[in-house]
Specification:
about 270 residues, alpha/beta, Rossmann fold, 10 strands, about 35% helix, about 20% strand
Length: about 270
């Protein structure tokens, strides 16, 4: 029953979100209005004339959805993948690290706390950040990088968007696979690729993203070796020992893959 409700309601919620409507937040805000006015009256009664910070109606700034919130978000795809992969890179401490399309105000800032890095994205980055070398480019083919040249590379929650036009890129149904093969090409022998995408029952949710079967990912990176795999499953929690099959049976999980390429042998 829950699965059926999700299939019915998810498209409605996503469509509303696309137009800037947040149905759950809107309902929470409406329910919080009476408490907000009670707080206004309570503050007015307790504030002593002449004290700093008098309440003025013209300067109200209603925040109506925080009454029952947590102190912070400690679950979900981005929280766990950013923290987990940043820790892996910190432990490896590569001489050079390149990231493709990961979230700047999350994973990239995690890395900038302890290292310099190169970053590639099709969207412009208008502000310069110390320690970040930015290249604005369509990374589908990674033409800027030679084969076997990058010892450490990451791409978190980016490949699922390639070729869907969402970020101004050309429509190309196979762009995600071209990109994954490009990642494998530029990875240096003995290096590390840190890669995450939505995983679960494989489908396209145009133009938002793709959700991949873990088998699709493993087949696309068949010339690399899997070092580790963990997943943020449908409950929003990180499972370090999740199996590939378990993640593929999820509705919308996040698979976090660590790959390496065989070192040269002579």
């Amino acid at each position: 029953m829950r699965s059926l409700a999700r299939k019915i309601l998810s498209p409605v919620g996503r469509t509303a979100y696309a137009f800037g409507i947040r149905p759950l937040q809107m309902c929470a805000a409406i329910l919080a209005v009476p408490r907000f006015f009670r707080d206004i009256f309570a503050y007015s009664r307790k504030h002593v004339s002449g004290q700093p910070f008098p309440l003025r109606l013209a300067q109200l700034h209603p925040c109506l959805t925080d009454y029952h919130g947590n102190s912070g978000v400690t679950r979900g795809h981005y929280f766990y993948q950013d923290l987990h992969v940043a820790r892996l890179i910190y432990a490896k401490n590569p001489h050079r690290h390149v990231d493709i399309g990961s979230r700047v105000d999350g994973f990239i800032t995690h890395l900038l706390c302890f290292r310099n890095l190169e970053y590639v994205d099709i969207r412009p980055l208008r502000d310069e950040l110390p320690g970040l070398k930015f290249t604005c480019s369509d990374a589908t083919c990674l033409a800027e990088f030679d084969t076997d040249s990058v010892e450490s590379i990451s791409s978190l929650h980016a490949a699922e968007h390639f070729g869907l036009g969402r970020y101004g890129d050309p429509i190309d149904p196979s762009a995600c696979f071209k990109f994954m093969r490009s990642l494998a090409r530029v990875l240096a022998p003995g290096g590390r690729l840190y890669f995450s995408v939505p995983v679960g029952r494989q489908r396209l949710e145009f133009n938002g993203h793709r959700i991949f079967s873990t088998l699709t990912i493993m087949n696309t990176f068949n010339d690399l070796h899997l070092v580790s795999f963990c997943a943020v499953l449908d409950d929003g929690k990180l499972y370090m020992n999740a199996s590939l099959d378990e993640a593929s049976s999820a509705y919308h999980a996040c698979g976090i893959f660590e790959f390496t390429k065989s070192a040269w042998t002579f």
